[in-house]
């Protein structure tokens, strides 16, 4: 049996915009009200996804969500025709309208936590959509995320889909962005690392003071129970609250792992040495590479700005590992120098590839945010909805679809335009046919 790690990238939706919705996410706040280019954003994402497929990786695409979210606007009391609902919301509660228009589901690292079958007692691959309760605009994602995941991984024999955790701050869950898996070969049982920002039921535990901690220990533990993980293969690590207060709103802004490599900033965690020892002890005797980046080489601000750690580390078919980095890393002197050095350190990382994902970066989403990792064996890959897998045909179909439906300019004022809603629904309806997803959206029910 062969094993792979697939990446499922979020297709950027037609309403991609800069609304400044994510307090604690420096890029989102600093680009608030900038004019976006949804067409360029979608194409930047597709280009990265296709490049990975061309490198021999299994690459999938997850469909975007329906925005503006008329269902939520009606649920909070706006009435009338669709155009009237948009108009009333724009006049009476513009901030709520903006929250209902974000294309934030594109960051599929926050779509769900995924545990491969080798780690789970029942031998199935488990998915739990993230509840994303810390941010209003993201808290409206999980139900449709669950629909899209079920339509993509549509085989009950191999895939187990859970409901998102209870919608309360005690269970704040941001999905795979706070979850890393270390393993030997992808098919071997791995060590699942859960990184949290606060303990909901222990008020004296460390937590940030300026910005919110989006992930709780209680949420991480609930996921581990649901996914039937073994305690001997699970490690819980507290994020360093000081770095959350400097803009590290998810662990994947400061650490990333792949197979036997953990790449992290020296300030990423609390109790680092003990946690590294626990990982080593649970990982066993095979070689493990901890690549710790010191502050005197790359400071937290440089890491947050460049997204050095929001890179993907992938294992190429040759066995070599490559870092998939945003071009922003090339533009930062200290980070670029570090990346030139990292391939010489004698670790499995031998290559760095740069991609322009600036439309996403301006909202705080780098290459790693744009993808959900799903380690699978060949039987499981065969059980995936094949119309979601990237190849020459899907790439050209999706590019044509974007050209046909997406605007190249969108401001927050445009979000109230009923025409944007019509364009978005027309596009998504066509997409569900193209990717054979069935009716995953409210407007299709
Ligand atoms: N993993 C990266 C997630 C980025 C995302 N940004 C946003 O939602 C910004 C949206 C806006 O401000 O328009 C977030 O913070 O959850």
TrEMBL record:
Give the residues annotated as active site. 174, 250, 369
Pfam families documented for this protein: AstB
User: Which Gene Ontology terms cover its molecular function?
Assistant: N-succinylarginine dihydrolase activity
User: Is-annotated flag, keyword Thylakoid?
Assistant: no
Q: Which InterPro entries match?
A: AstB_sf, SuccinylArg_d-Hdrlase_AstB
Q: What is its EC number?
A: 3.5.3.23
- Top-rank lineage group of the source organism: Bacteria
- Chain segments annotated as coiled-coil in the UniProt record: none
Which parts of the sequence bind substrate?
19-28, 110, 137-138, 214, 252, 363
Write out the catalysed reaction: N(2)-succinyl-L-arginine + 2 H2O + 2 H(+) = N(2)-succinyl-L-ornithine + 2 NH4(+) + CO2
Per UniProt, the keywords (alphabetical) are: Arginine metabolism, Hydrolase
Gene3D superfamilies, from UniProt? Answer: Succinylarginine dihydrolase (3.75.10.20)
Q: Quick check: keyword Chaperone in the entry?
A: no
Per the record, the pathway is:
Amino-acid degradation; L-arginine degradation via AST pathway; L-glutamate and succinate from L-arginine: step 2/5
Q: Its quaternary structure?
A: Homodimer.
Which family is it part of?
Belongs to the succinylarginine dihydrolase family.
Which NCBIfam families would you find in this protein's record? arg_catab_astB (TIGR03241), PRK13281.1 (NF009789)
Q: What does this protein do?
A: Catalyzes the hydrolysis of N(2)-succinylarginine into N(2)-succinylornithine, ammonia and CO(2).
Q: What is this protein called?
A: N-succinylarginine dihydrolase
Give the gene symbol: astB
